[in-house]
Amino acid sequence: TFFLEKLLFTYLRKIDRMPSIMTRFAIGNGLGCCALLAAFFVELAVMAQDKPNTLSIWWQVPQFSLIATAEIFTISTSYEVAFTLAPTALKTVSSACNLIFFSISGLLAGVLFVIFEGWMPDFHADDPKSYKDAHYDYYFLVLAGVCVFGVIGSCLLRPYFRRITSVSKHVV
């Protein structure tokens, strides 16, 4: 957050090159997709091992770095929308709506997990081969598809949101 908000975003605002809100949402979703693709490839590497615990934990650094950066883009931008574009009297309502959307995304992830739980059987430490029938890789691809949908939706909504932003600036 410090790097993005205090350094990068401050610099981009200073030179008048700050990406629009919907562009930042698209970037966040795109980074989320990249994180899930990284997780997909790590899962393929794990599945190629004879023993599941032999792959270095460092293989997971890219996916967690990417998802953390993606969350910074999407979450900080959603709070910016809630607190800067809403009229003063509705800032609390706007913040509550923002939190409801976070809940919906958590619900969606949970529903997808239940739908695809057959791909993800429990791992039993006493039976190291029990992970061979698991397909977390498929689940990561489904979630990456959801992120692609988020990128496309963000891009398609840019003109609409640009209009809303300009109207909001004149009202507030």
Automatic annotation (TrEMBL):
Organism: Neobodo designis (Flagellated protozoan)
Name of this chain's protein: Major facilitator superfamily (MFS) profile domain-containing protein
A molecular-function term among this protein's GO annotations: transmembrane transporter activity
Family: Belongs to the major facilitator superfamily. Proton-dependent oligopeptide transporter (POT/PTR) (TC 2.A.17) family.
Compartment(s) where it occurs, according to its Swiss-Prot or TrEMBL record: Membrane
InterPro entries assigned: MFS_trans_sf, POT_fam
GO cellular component, one term: membrane
Membrane spanning residue stretches: 21-42, 62-85, 97-116, 136-157
Superkingdom of source: Eukaryota
PANTHER family on file: OLIGOPEPTIDE TRANSPORTER-RELATED (PTHR11654)
Keywords of the record: Membrane, Transmembrane, Transmembrane helix
Annotated membrane topology: Multi-pass membrane protein
Pfam families (UniProt xref): PTR2
